[in-house]
Design a protein that fits this description.
Radius of gyration: 25 Å
Number of domains: 4
Number of helices: 6
Strand content: 25-35%
Structural class: mainly beta
Largest sheet: 5 strands, antiparallel
Strand order of the largest sheet: 9-8-7-4-10
Helix content: 10-25%
Order of helices and strands: HHEHEHEHHEEEEEEEEEEEEEEEEEEEE
Shape: elongated
CATH architecture of the largest domain: 2-Layer Sandwich
CATH class of the largest domain: Alpha Beta
Length: 348
């Protein structure tokens, strides 16, 4: 099954992007039996980055280490882990190791073990020198064994020296943490030569940050989230103009087409334009900043009317964001990361 998925994504997006959203057959963490994907019972933000902002996402992000799990693919760590941000993917380490990992402040398992391949930028900022550990070495909050252990640096690892030394102890940086280690277990202590300044070469890039619209270069699926694992909302025909609703994310754009909002792969967009896009609204109270509360458990549907599919049920007393103009007594709203329509009879 993993081979089928990876080959499918490779045919559509190419091997480079496919490797960011799907594991190469034989390398998926799920095959170890130690990784799970977590979600909400109602399916809200399933396998999407917005899961992190749901009550369940917040709780598991804060407490998973107590039960031996860590979030495996953190935000901003794609260059280290090789995978996009996945706040739903958790890896089992065991309670002791997971708690140590949490307290270490490491942002990835690779960084925790010192095998990330590239050190964070702040590790070398203002560095006064380098050294290498001759044994597994505790980094502490201060100079002396009476201070708390921050993390244990494996034997043979390189550390950055800040230049501060006290009673035979050195202040060092390792794995994004700064602390003190005993100089007895350091070797190859050296001061680096001053690096030469590199001239920056400017490479012309297509400016899409302010783009308001683009055209499709193929029949293009609009999905409910970033990635091909998300549900298809509709298929946009080749050559059609779509409105860009926000910033690019992992190669995907949030767009609007035919009254529907969703995400599309930037691989199949061209002719980016900065022409102004202004959604029509006849009701000044229905601006994107407006909100209302439900007065009953209220079904959010895929369109205006009870014949449309139910996306989720919004509990009574919850606040929803009004996304646009009222239509036949129904409002377009956003709740728990989902967009849909609800009857205005049950809003106040």
């Amino acid at each position: 099954r993993q081979a089928e998925l990876f080959n499918y994504y490779t045919r559509i997006y190419g091997k480079s992007y496919a490797s960011r959203i799907s594991a190469v057959p034989g390398t998926s963490e799920h095959q170890t039996g130690l990784a799970i994907d977590v979600g909400n019972a109602n399916g809200a933000c399933g396998l999407q980055a917005c899961f992190a902002n749901t009550p369940v996402g917040k709780w598991v992000g804060k407490n998973s280490h107590k039960y031996g799990f860590i979030m495996r693919y953190g935000k901003g760590q794609e260059s280290v882990t090789g995978y996009s941000y996945e706040p739903w993917h958790f890896r089992y380490l065991g309670t002791s190791l997971a708690k140590n990992y949490k307290s270490s402040g490491a942002k990835s398992l690779e960084a925790y073990y010192g095998v990330s391949g590239s050190s964070p930028k702040n590790n070398t900022k203002n560095a006064k020198g380098t050294a290498r550990t001759t044994a597994n070495l505790n980094m502490r909050t201060g100079a002396g064994t009476g201070n708390r252990v921050l993390l244990t640096i494996p034997r043979g690892k390189s550390v950055q020296l800040t230049g501060s030394k006290k009673s035979g102890w050195y202040q060092v940086r390792y794995s994004s943490r700064t602390g003190w280690v005993s100089g007895k277990y350091l070797s190859s202590i050296s001061m680096p030569s001053k690096p030469k300044k590199e001239s920056k070469k400017s490479t012309p890039k297509q400016n899409t940050s302010n783009a308001k619209s683009a055209k499709t270069s193929a029949n293009l699926n609009m999905r409910t989230g970033v990635g091909t694992s998300h549900r298809v909302v509709l298929t946009i025909p080749q050559g059609k103009k779509v409105a860009i609703r926000g910033a690019k994310k992992s190669g995907w754009y949030p767009v609007k087409y035919a009254g529907k909002n969703g995400w599309v792969s930037g691989t199949y967009l061209r002719s980016f334009s900065s022409s102004t896009y202004s959604p029509k609204s006849s009701d000044p109270k229905s601006s994107s900043s407006a909100s209302k509360k439900t007065i009953a458990n209220l079904n959010m549907r895929s369109g205006a009317g009870t014949s449309k599919r139910v996306i989720l049920t919004i509990p009574k007393g919850k606040k929803v964001s009004i996304r646009g103009a009222k239509k036949s007594g129904w409002y377009p709203v956003k709740y728990a990361g989902k967009n849909g329509w609800v009857s205005g009879k049950y809003l106040r």
